[in-house]
Amino acid sequence: GVEGCDGALFVGYHAKIGTLHAVLDHTYYSSMVNCVRLNGTEVGEPEINAVLAGHFNIPVVFLSGDEAVCHDAKSFIGEYLETAIVKKAVGRTAADCLHPEKSHQLIKEGVKKSISCLPSAKPLYINLPVTFEIEFFTTQMADRASIYPFAERVNGRTVKVQGKTVLEGYQAFMSILGLARI
């Protein structure tokens, strides 16, 4: 559980699918999901997880990954987010990586700094109800995902789910992803 957590640290994250100059950009399933929108904004896993942490009143205070994900996460989560850029994309499947010892040192320093800022950190909240729109790669995936009565088919490849709370919306989102994979 998350009870008793003062802050969340995201280590080893990647950018959302379609991000320019990002290493292994994807959102959940690289062979299935073309785009995820949260309340109309295109998001990746760091943004979704930050909003989910906010549901539990937990601020995200640190993130490490490539240059692209650090930039995007800071833009969405907030300038207070401490980041450690440990690699820079050369292409989707190639990166200019820091030496592991240097990466470890940057992460360690970033985590220390982020923990010292915990008293002023704020959880990330979004407007409710929450809406997830998932654009799949194929109509067949959307066919399967839209079987649930709470899922709304938006178009050939897009399915939408809502939740009164972030957790409820997230659970619906993960459920349709699971069904679409079958």
From TrEMBL:
A Pfam family per the record: Peptidase_M55
Q: What is this protein called?
A: Peptidase M55
Species for this entry = marine sediment metagenome
